[in-house]
Amino acid sequence: MMDKLIPVVVIKDINETEKIMNALKNNGINCAEITFRTSCAAEAIALASKKFPEMNIGAGTVINGEQCLKALEAGATFIVSPGLSEEVAAICAQRNIPYYPGCVTPTEIMKALSLGLTTLKFFPANIYGGLKGLKALAAPFPQVKFIPTGGVNRDNLDEFLACDKVAAVGGTFFVEEALNK
Ligand code: 3PG
Fold it and tell me: Smaller CB count within 10 Å for the chain: N or C?
């Protein structure tokens, strides 16, 4: 079963990796999506995977095949994209790695389904109608579960988690909370 809480982690300095991962772990979180928004992402994934083998460490903001290969080489156990990349989908399918592409329209969801993908990121969730938007989009696709991300926070987290169309929720706020404890 996948983790229900997925912290979106942005590591600006490789030396911060352990501190962030420890904070998440101490806050009861067993998973991290380390994003390719910073140049040390692959290095951070490799370091976190080595130091925290009990945690589920994936890669986020993966927008092409090259980044996907780097992430997998570093030890990422799942891949997340803000949108849908067929190149990334093909690599993940071949290696049996879960891939969660961002989809916010029926056409995008149909494309994902044609690639065999049924757990999809819903991003930016707050801009695309929040829980109401997610439910409306889910109605014609009973086989799909979503990972709302973008604008998820402590105030709306429980509402999202209570929805049976929600597989997990993602957000940077998990990291902020853990570091501020
Ligand atoms: C992501 O890539 O998933 C988002 O940037 C996270 O959005 P948030 O900062 O609103 O949680």
Answer: N
Taking CA atoms only, the protein residue closest to ligand 1 atom 3 is: 149
Report how far residue 24's alpha carbon sits from residue 174's, in angstroms, rounded to the nearest whole number: 8
CA distance 149 to 82: 9
Write out pLDDT tens, residues 41-71.
999 999 999 999 999 999 999 999 999 999 9
What is the average per-residue pLDDT within 61-90? 98
In testing the pocket of ligand 1, which one of 5, 8, 29 has its CB within 8 Å of the most ligand atoms? 8
Mean pLDDT of the chain: 97
Kindly state the helix (H) or strand (E) to which residue 28 belongs, with its residue range: none
Tell me the CA–centroid distance for residue 30 and ligand 1, in Å. 18
CA dist list (Å): 39 to 12, 19, 66, 89: 8, 18, 13, 22
